[in-house]
Amino acid sequence: MNRSDLQNVAKRVVWFKTPDAALRDVQLFLAHVMTYGTLNDITTTLHYFSEADFEAVLNDPPPGVFDRRSWTYWNVRYHREPVPTLPVRNLPL
Known about the structure:
The protein has about 90 residues and is mostly helical. It has one domain. About 60% of the residues lie in helices and about 0% in strands. It has helices at about 5-15, 20-25, 25-35, 40-45, 50-60, 70-75. α3 crosses α5 (about 50-60). About 25% of the residues are buried.
């Protein structure tokens, strides 16, 4: 496995940034993998980042990235029950 595999994942799941820019923002990148990634994307990413890195995203998640299903799955996977409230993005009116 080489870094181009990880860049391909970044290009797919963080479509609005270049792969290099996406990979520089680890928290945002991992949150997008956790929400939009396929099993193959997750497996590839786990070759470069640890389970602890993935779990750390749940401690300070970027608002507006996780959907309810992904948020619940990852919290249960890391034995964080009851599952905390899904983070939301507050937009000024």
